[in-house]
Design brief:
By secondary structure, the protein is of the alpha+beta class. It contains 15 helices and 34 strands. The strands form 9 sheets. Strands 1-2-29-28-27 form a 5-stranded antiparallel beta sheet, with no helix packed on it. The protein has a 4-stranded antiparallel beta sheet with strand order 3-4-5-6, with no helix packed on it. Strands 7-8-9-10 form a 4-stranded antiparallel beta sheet, with no helix packed on it. Strand 3 and strand 4 form a beta hairpin. About 20% of the residues are buried. About 5% of the residues have low confidence. It holds the Pfam family NOL10_2nd.
Length: about 675
């Protein structure tokens, strides 16, 4: 049994621990219980209180004796008898159950709404009758005064099935495209249906007329909430004659007074998941709302969180056992979880021993003192050979590991690694040897790229070494930093000291760099000597170092002027060299070939063509439309029609001009021939 506490509310998980497979024999189960500590310490209120794969819905009969759960796979219903603490019966079904309702006080009358549009009725002996509704059903409610079943489905109609007459009655026509959930008030029997548009329609079953409409989607949107789509109604529950709670698909719970169209409280689960279930707890005036991830309990007057639970698996349904502090959940797992909270109420009569257990645990609380305790993970326990102690009183589970006595930890470590002291002694000796080696003269290993910059950084580190020892602060080194590692490896990052920017910005660096170059030469000579003769003594003093003189006292302005003069002289020399090269070079003519049918205009036209080819198709179409070579028009169907005018080559233009001239000549010849014929006719008539 696991115990958790949130807001000083203790929650006892009665389903914690491993479950045994069904195919094991009783003898093997008893043997496993003797060997396994987890199985022996678990509490099994009801024997085999689980489903083969998942459980979708769970309900309690009105007399409190039977707990019924539906699940898969295969689709089935299991009835558990609380008086016998075992399973009463199991029935397999043809298709999965969307929801079900217990019509009688016991298990003798049950109605199932299945996913294939069938409504199945079961009696005490088993299957009784089966019928079908026009659309795929999503929820239904039973109206006791008239014996009517109200079905909401993926349509705008609410189907009514009268169980006394055994026939369908006239449907209720709603304004919604689809209806998701429904409920009937137990006091005045008002029927409410939640729609996919985020509205709740209330109907009077006596007159079959709509008496109210609530726009919950608009009311659920507040300044703090972020909603992606239109909230639809996913849960609905009445409380008394005047209160109603509505759950949305975006994770909000709205509490309404039926006399007002505005909600009293809007509670956001902050997960953005659809609300699966809403329950009312009357003793403490709490609302228990659940989505697929979390169960929240909050005060219906103030909205303040009372406590919350997050099971390991996704939640499908929540059932509160009447007049008690027991809560059961149907999950995406074989187990049906049972939680007990003494604050909500006493334990049910059939498991009254839970009160004694919880009282003993509260009277004798274990001390939570962590002095003289060592925190170890499961891997540490395996290395020490203490993995078999998991579950015993020697280890206290905490977060991702365990707390154990420090004395036991030291004993186990000595037994697991008896040579730990020898390793510690060797490590200390090695550290002492390294300290003595550090006092010797060591050669500085410089990188291949930016050697002068690396030498500068080393000198600065040596100057600040004394100050660091006083302040006892270890500052990071740029040479060892991975962020600047490439600067001393990649030749592309080499500093160009001959550039104009470097010489003008750092006029005094040149003098200091001369000293560093001398040091670099000395270090390179020492490295070469070390490679050739390894037996020679290290670090001989050089005459070059003793003869160094510091010229840093010169004026900075004079250095800048000198650098500028040098740069001007270098520019003059470069100009003269370029002028000589230009005089020596002779320009050679270049020849270009023109395709047939094309006329050379200028080099600018070819550049324009290249730029035009680089543009997108849309830009080219716009340009051609401006030039008049393209026309875009709308058709009667609603589409676009584009007409292109192809550019003609010079040959085509010449051919067209020749054809026009030929046609004109033929016309003139025809006209002259007709004129001669008319003259001849006149002369014959005259003769």
């Amino acid at each position: 049994m696991q115990v958790s506490s949130l807001n000083e509310v203790k929650i006892y998980s009665l389903s914690a621990g491993r479950s045994l497979p069904e195919w094991l024999s009783d003898r093997k189960k008893r043997a496993l219980q003797k060997k396994d500590v987890d199985i022996r310490r678990r509490i099994e209120l009801i024997q085999d209180f689980e489903m083969p794969t998942i459980s979708t819905k769970i309900k309690v009969s009105r007399d409190g004796q039977y707990i019924m759960a539906v699940g898969t796979y295969k689709p089935r219903i299991r009835c558990f008898d609380t008086y016998q603490l075992s399973q009463k019966f199991e029935r397999c079904l043809d298709s999965e159950v969307v929801t079900f309702e217990i019509l009688s006080d016991d298990y003798s009358k049950i109605v199932f709404l299945q996913c294939d549009r069938f409504v199945e009725f079961h009696s005490q002996h088993g299957h009784y009758y089966r019928t079908r509704i026009p659309k795929f059903g999503r929820d239904f409610s039973y109206h006791y005064p008239s014996c009517d079943l109200y079905f909401v489905a993926a349509s705008s109609e609410v189907y009514r099935l009268n169980l006394e007459q055994g026939r369908f009655l006239n449907s209720l026509q709603t304004d919604a495209s689809e209806n998701n959930v429904c409920d009937i008030n137990p006091t005045h029997f008002l029927f409410a249906a939640g729609t996919a548009e985020g509205k709740v329609e209330c109907w009077d079953p006596r007159t079959r007329n709509r008496v109210g409409l609530l726009d919950c989607a608009l009311s659920s949107v507040t300044a703090d909430t972020e909603i992606d789509g239109l909230p639809s109604i996913s849960a609905l529950k009445f409380n008394g004659a005047l209160n109603m709670a509505v759950g949305t698909s975006t994770g909000q719970v709205l509490l309404y007074d039926l006399r007002s169209s505005n909600p009293l409280i809007v509670k956001d689960h902050q997960y953005g998941l659809p609300i699966k279930s809403i329950q009312f707890q009357h003793q403490l005036d709490l609302i228990i709302s659940a989505d697929s991830r979390i169960i929240k309990m909050w005060n219906k007057d103030t909205g303040k969180i009372f406590t919350s639970m997050e099971p390991e698996h996704d939640i499908n349904d929540v059932c509160l056992y009447p007049n008690s502090g027991m809560l059961m959940t149907a999950n995406e797992a074989p187990k049906i979880y049972i939680y007990y909270m003494p604050v909500l109420g006493p334990a049910p009569k059939w498991c009254s021993f839970l009160d004694n257990l919880t009282e003993e645990l509260e009277e004798n609380p274990e001390s939570t003192v962590y002095d003289d305790y060592k925190f170890v993970t499961r891997k540490d326990l395996e290395n020490l050979g203490l993995a078999h102690l998991i579950g015993s009183s020697l280890l206290r589970a905490y977060m991702h590991g365990f707390f154990m006595d420090i004395r036991l930890y030291h004993k186990a470590k000595m037994m697991a690694n008896p040579f730990a002291y020898e390793e510690y002694r060797r490590e200390k000796i090695r550290q002492k040897i390294e300290e003595t080696r550090a006092q010797r003269v060591q050669l500085k290993k410089l990188p291949k790229v930016n050697k002068e910059l690396a030498l500068k950084l080393i000198e600065e580190e040596e100057e600040q070494q004394a100050a660091r020892k006083r302040k006892q602060k270890n500052l990071p080194s740029l040479l060892k930093d991975d962020r600047f590692k490439v600067m001393f490896e990649n030749p592309d990052f080499q500093v160009d000291e001959q550039s104009e920017e470097f010489r003008l910005l750092n006029p005094l660096v040149s003098k200091i760099s001369e000293k560093r170059k001398k040091k670099l030469k000395i270090l390179e000579e020492k490295e070469a000597q070390k490679q050739e003769e390894e037996e020679e003594p290290e670090g001989k003093p050089s005459d070059a170092e003793s003869s160094e003189s510091s010229d840093d006292e010169k004026d900075w302005v004079e250095e800048v002027r000198k650098q500028r003069k040098l740069l001007r002289q270098e520019e003059k020399v470069k100009r003269q060299e370029r002028f000589k090269e230009d005089q020596q070079t002779l320009l050679k003519p270049q020849f270009f070939e023109i395709k047939e049918g094309e006329e050379f205009r200028s080099f600018k036209d070819s550049a324009k063509k290249q730029k035009l080819m680089k543009k997108t198709l849309g830009d080219r179409l716009k340009l051609e439309e401006k030039l008049g070579t393209l026309t875009v028009s709308d058709t009667t169907v609603g589409s676009k029609q584009a007409t292109f005018k192809l550019k003609k080559s010079e040959q085509q233009k010449k051919q067209q001009e020749a054809e026009k001239q030929h046609r004109q000549e033929r016309k003139t010849l025809r006209r002259s021939a007709g004129h001669l014929k008319s003259k001849r006719g006149r002369g014959q008539r005259f003769h």
